[in-house]
Amino acid sequence: MEEKRICVLSVIVKDRVAAERLNAHLSAYGEYVVGRMGIPYREKDVSVLCVVLDAPVSVVNALTGKIGKLEGVSAKTLFSQY
Length: 82
Fold this sequence. Notes:
alpha+beta, Alpha-Beta Plaits, 4-stranded antiparallel sheet, 4 strands, globular
């Protein structure tokens, strides 16, 4: 079994139309989500999302890839080293 890691998935949403698809992806991986915080940055017309995951690296990479393919969305992941 692949080692699980704690990671932070950072997402910037520039196109609010993508929010529904983004939420669908996060919901599909909901069993791995430890916490989530979203901040609308109205002055810049973007939303910033921080998601904490406890999951195998392959699962996190799959989710990050799906989110990163959404139009108007960018995503990066930081893994723990425990």
